[in-house]
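Data deposition worksheet. Section B asks for the primary sequence of the deposited chain exactly as it was used as input, without tags or linkers unless they were present during the calculation. Section C holds the resulting structure in token form. Section D is free text for depositor observations; keep each observation to a single sentence. Incomplete worksheets are returned to the depositor.
Section A, Depositor: J.P.
Section B:
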Amino acid sequence: MGSAIAMRLTKPKIDGLPLMVFDPDSIKLAPFIERGAIAAKSALELCKSCDIIFACLPTSAVTETVLFGDAGISRDLKPGQIFVDMTSGDPAISRDQAARLAKAGVTFVDAPVSGGPRGAREGTIAIMVGGEDKLYEQILPTLKVISSNIFHAGPVGAGHALKAGNNLLNLICRMASFEVVSLLINAGVDAERAVDILQKSSGRNYATEITLPDNILSGKMHQGFSMALMEKDAGLALDMAAGFAQAMPLGEVAFAELQDAMYTHGDAADMSLVALEYETKTGARIRPK
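Section C:
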């Protein structure tokens, strides 16, 4: 996701300035350099050169290391700089990180995204921004280069809360869609026809629109999003609910189904492989024969 997002920032240039990029793996920087981006030799160089720093990392724990670890960049950030965390993170940790950066005059914004690699490439991903109104307006021109779907979720942490809730809902809809499509296949309905009709009906959702046709029925079986990342995001939402003593029966069932799939296929397995669990459990072949 980070790669696709950064690629959109290479053209056009923001305020006439080129994008500066950094990754510990220099090989990953080549496509950006080809499009006019400047490769920083280190995170320190990037911090010294940029007013707005975007990070798209796997977890809040990784963001914590990047910011406040032994080689963390927080000590190199200057008053007035903005750190935009596009990680699918923990709202509580985000608020804590924001408070610590604020002591140095640095502003933290959480801006997770949803819509998958395809949405990132096409500029249609949803960006959920957590931060003050004035700050939101300040970074909005840059965010508009990334996507046409930008939303101010509320104060710091609200973006990450929304992303966690969104991914839990995505998981629930995905599991329910696989379950119902399996039922329809066993009832004699062709898989592609079932998905096409569901997508035009009241049961439509991301799984019927994108996951099933693009990643399952195509036989590709690859979405580019691991089961471990889905477990992390959905788990964050369930942890939030536990903090409010709110029951989440549908979420708990979907989460248990995901963990069953992880037990079979491993943490790093692509989310598309969850469909195989339903094939095994129901006897319905969802993939092309």
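Section D:
The chain has a mean pLDDT of 94.
The domain at 2-155 is CATH 3.40.50.720 (Rossmann fold).
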